[in-house]
Specification:
The structure is a single chain. The protein is built from 5 helices and 7 strands. By secondary structure, it is an alpha/beta fold. A 5-stranded parallel sheet has the order 2-1-3-6-7, sandwiched between helices. Strands 4-5 form a two-stranded antiparallel ribbon. A hairpin with a 2-residue loop joins strand 4 and strand 5. The longest helix is centred in the N-terminal third of the chain and has 14 residues. It is globular, with a radius of gyration of 12 Å. The N and C termini lie close together (10 Å).
Amino acid sequence: MLRTIIIEDELDAQNLLSTILKEYCPDIESVTIASNVRDGIKLIKETEPHLVFLDIQLGVHHGFQILDFFRKPSFKIIFTTAYSDYALKAFEYQALDYLLKPFGPKQVISAVSRA
């Protein structure tokens, strides 16, 4: 079972991803959500997740700032973003997958299966 965090600042995207995980991914144990860099770092420290779905653009910040805070993350990262420009950088951060919005259940299921 995978403890999972969604770090996403758009409410619709939070709800979509959370719903897909709950309905289609039985290996997901729990899903918690943060909407900014500060809360994301705090939530990672508190819950020690196995898997983090991370948006690239979080207001005026980037999701990469969260990863810079953790020298060697113990969690796997799946980026969820509307920007294809950051894919190479995401894989430099050892991304498990890079989902472009709008994504659907098929893409999420495939990404989770890699975890």
